[in-house]
């Protein structure tokens, strides 16, 4: 079958779409190295705003809070999402499957305002104080569905014969899971973790509902500063955040490609 070459219209639409998505990010990165204090006026190349950023105690504290929240919530979401994916992809039809699927995927389609308000009412009702722990639980709830979808898609592409062969050789269900299924799922689990981590770093709405004293995340801090005016320091903070996420995604992609090359060999 002959592959169809993209037409000029298709290439133009693709370039426009990519430009619409990534041109603002590129401008932000470039202007983070602006020597001028005016974000719309180029004053020459300088790294002064990165030095200012490293001396901004409240912003660094917010970044540290975001990293802790993102790591903890991503770990919880990855564990719960992987278990949910195994239940959905490996156990066929069971009583309550449809409600279970709906509960897992509901945070993916529900407006974040509704999710944040619902979690706030839940925490108030059960007596959980708003703060760091509440944000971790909220972000884990938000990320579990995304992890489940990614891992379930990876599960559907696995060769069941490998698991059946291990079982035929005497391995029990838990040993098959630990020695065959989970290693094969590692790229999907890593991708799900990174997705949950990124969603937590990026979230502003849900965290605003359930945060408390001493639990200000980086997006909340940046939003509060932007309301007073944009400055190149915010561009520098955003650039570092983009670089961190890019490095994490690149590492996960390299790990998945390396694992896939070993499997093919």
Structure description:
The protein is mostly helical and 265 residues long. The protein contains eleven helices and no strands. It has two domains: 10-46, no CATH class; 57-264, MetI-like fold (Orthogonal Bundle). Helix content is 77%, strand content 0%. Helix 6 (132-156) packs across helix 8. The longest helix has 34 residues, at 57-90. It is globular, with a radius of gyration of 22 Å. The mean pLDDT is 80.
Blueprint (SSEs and pairs):
Blueprint (H helix, E strand, L loop, with lengths): L7 H24 L16 H7 L2 H34 L6 H13 L2 H15 L5 H25 L3 H9 L4 H30 L2 H6 L7 H9 L5 H33 L1
Helix pairs in contact: 2-11, 3-6, 3-8, 3-10, 4-6, 6-8, 7-8, 8-11
- Low-pLDDT segments, ≥5 res: none
Protein structure class: mainly alpha
What CATH calls the topology of the largest domain is: MetI-like fold
Proper CATH architecture of the largest domain? Orthogonal Bundle
Number of helices: 11
Strand content: under 5%
Q: Share of helix among residues?
A: over 70%
Rg over alpha carbons = 22 Å
> How many structural domains?
2
Mean pLDDT: 80
Please provide the count of β strands.
0
Query: What string gives the helices and strands in order?
Result: HHHHHHHHHHH
What's the story with the biggest beta sheet?
Answer: none
Report the span from N to C terminus.
28 Å
Tag the structure with descriptive keywords.
single chain; 2 domains; MetI-like fold; globular; mainly alpha; 265 residues
Describe the structure concisely for a colleague:
The protein is mainly α. The chain has helices spanning about 10-30, 50-55, 55-90, 95-110, 110-125, 130-155, 160-170, 175-200, 205-210, 220-225, 230-265.
